[in-house]
Amino acid sequence: MEIAMVGLGKMGANMSKRLLQGGHRVVVADLNAEAVATAVAAGAIAADSLESLPRLLAAPRAVWMMVPAGDATQNVINTLARVLRPGDIIVDGGNSNYKDSMRRAAVLREIGLHFVDVGTSGGIWGLSEGYSLMVGGSEEAVAHLRPALETLAPGAEIGWGHVGPSGAGHFVKMIHNGIEYGLMQAYAEGFELMNHKEELGLDLHQIAEIWRHGSVVRSWLLDLTADALADNPTLAGIAAYVPDSGEGRWTVAEAIELNCAIPVITMALQRRFRSREEAPFADKLLAAMRNQFGGHAVKKAD
Description:
single chain; alpha/beta; 13 helices; 51% helix; 13% strand
C-alpha cells in the first residue's frame, strides 16, 4: 500500500524505513530537511508541505503522524483536516492522551475522515524487531491499514491488534506504559538491594545474565538491564534522575477516576518524582521533627 509519514524523529524515521523495506510506497513530510533527505535516499518520496500530501497519494489516503502529543499533534490534524477528503484516514501513532483521541475522532467523523489511534511500542529496536501496535478505530479504516500494520509489527499475525474503537489504542498503550513503570522499578529495587550487600561481592551483570534464561522474571527489560550492566557495571556518570513522559500520570489519574487500586504503578511514578529532588524537603523536615521531639542529632548539609 501507500502511506504518508508525518514526523521523522527517530521512531518515525525507522518506521518509514521498515515500511519501505516491506515494499510500501512511502511519502514523508517533516520540518527537518535533513531527515527528509535521508528518507528520500532510502526510497521515500518527499512532500514539500502537508498541503501537498493529497496529490501525492491515491484515495483513500492514509497519513500516519509521529509527532509530539499535544499542540503539535493537534496542529497537524487541523491542517490535514483542511486538505484531505472524505474517506481518507489520519493515524496518530504518538503517545496522545486517549481522551484527546476520542474527541479528535468524533470531530473528524463529522467531516467524513477516519481517525485511527495506534499505541506504538518498540523504541529504537522497532526497525529490526518490529513494533507492538495497539490499534483503535473503525473496522473499515483498520482493514485498509492492515498491510502497513502487518509490516510494522513483528509478524503479520503477532504483535499487533485492533483492540477497540477510537481511543482504545492509546488507552491500552497508556496502561502498557504504566505497567512498564512498575516493572522497571521492581528490577531497579532488586538490583539496588543486591548492590548494598557488599560483603558478598555480587556481580550484578552475571546475575542479570543468569536470570535471563529459565527464570520466571526473564523479560526483554531484563535483557536490556544486562546490557546496561555489561557496558557500565557501576553506572558511572549516570545521574539518579528519572524523567517521565506523561503516560504514567495519565494511568494513575484514570485509576483514581475509576476507583481502581494500582499501588505498584502509582508508587513507581512517585519514585520517579523523588529521583529529581537533590535534597527533598520532606526528608529535611523528618530530621527536624526527630530533633524536636527527641533531641536527635541533625546532620548538617554540605
